[in-house]
Prior knowledge:
Layout: H1 16-26, E1 33-34, H2 51-63, H3 76-87, E2 97-103, H4 104-119, E3 124-129, H5 135-141, E4 145-150, E5 152-153, E6 158-159, H6 161-168, E7 176-180, H7 193-206, E8 209-214, H8 223-226, H9 228-236, E9 240-245, E10 257-263, H10 267-282, H11 291-300, H12 303-330, E11 344-346, H13 351-361, E12 363-364, E13 370-372, H14 381-391
Parallel strand pairs: 1-12, 3-4, 3-7, 7-8, 8-9
Antiparallel strand pairs: 2-10, 5-6, 9-10, 11-13
Helix pairs in contact: 2-11, 2-12, 3-11, 4-5, 4-10, 6-7, 7-9
Bound molecules: (2S)-2-hydroxybutanedioic acid.
Residues 17, 37-38, 132, 134, 185 line the site of (2S)-2-hydroxybutanedioic acid.
Amino acid sequence: MTASVFDTLDTPVPDAILGLAAQFRADTRPGRIDLGVGVFRDEAGRTPVMRAVKAAEARLLEQQDSKSYLGLEGDMGFVERMAPIVFGTAHGLGDRLQGLQTAGGTGALRAALDLVARANPKARVWVGLPTWANHRPLILSAGLEVAPMPFFDQASQTVDVGAMLEALSAARPGDAVILQGCCHNPTGAVLEPADWDALATIVADRGLLPIMDLAYQGLGDGLEADAASTRLMAARVPALLIAYSCDKNFGVYRDRVGALWVIGTNAAEAARARAHALAAVRTMWSMPPDHGAAAIRLILEDAALTADWRAELDSMRSRIVEVRRALAAAHPLLAPLGRQTGMFSLLPVDAPVVERLKTAHAIYAVPPGRINVAGLRVDQVETFAQALARAI
Ligand code: LMR
């Protein structure tokens, strides 16, 4: 047998989140609990199709008369109707704001990073640690350098904004910085308005390009509150990229619905940047998948469906808040989780505890300790807290 060209691919490519999902599927122990991959689950442990999405999909089936290509930018009706939800109804950005549909939030991030690489191939991309496991590979895939900065201390559950600002004071003009707008993945940590203010100031002063990663709008403090940091940034900096995911707040995970918005100093600059983002998209997915974005457009074109989507999203958010409250009350170590927001928290424990939770208690958290709060039913919180107490 001659050597295969693939023989050189001898390094394993572990994916902490997806690897854990496979292990969970293979586990047959009764009462096992999956706190791994970030999908919302209701009190019955299901990830339902949202009511408004179901209704819109039925309409789509009825009305859609072609599946011909829409173009690189996807469904612009979807993009235009999402903009006021993200930026506010009176954002005043005019043609400085230009968007395109992407294949999920990951696609939006990758297109954003490719755009950064086209604008400034030497850019470093600053990212607070810990962060979503896919950020670093995405930065590297775009051929850019990762510039880590301290963000959150797992043991003490505290955010270190001073350390972030100090790190960014060494950034070069033209560097980019990824900032998660709300519901931080994996920590749930909250930045205060004064922190965002300080970040906007340093970004503007040093000529940095922020990339706001907004994947959970509506699942933290509500649709408006969760967009506040993005809106503040949009009002304060000359140029901004917003990588947005609808996968969680519309529950359309596998349909891959996202958007990328570019804000430039003027309309012509924004249009140029958008054209380069579209050129980058052409080499990745060419044209985005349509179904989920078309369904969301139909929801947002209809006042009753929009109201129902907002109501269901708010009940999802309330459930997450309720589980967080129960966790915070169940064990002193978990008290900080009550102040955090969104689907994720990073347990203040070390790696062997996370391993024991899995091996001894069939509770799956992503190393080094991320849990999907929405993976717990309220009536499982006590079991979880007792298992944690035994594992530490
Ligand atoms: C997660 O962090 O679990 C989700 O964003 C799913 C993913 O793609 O990693």
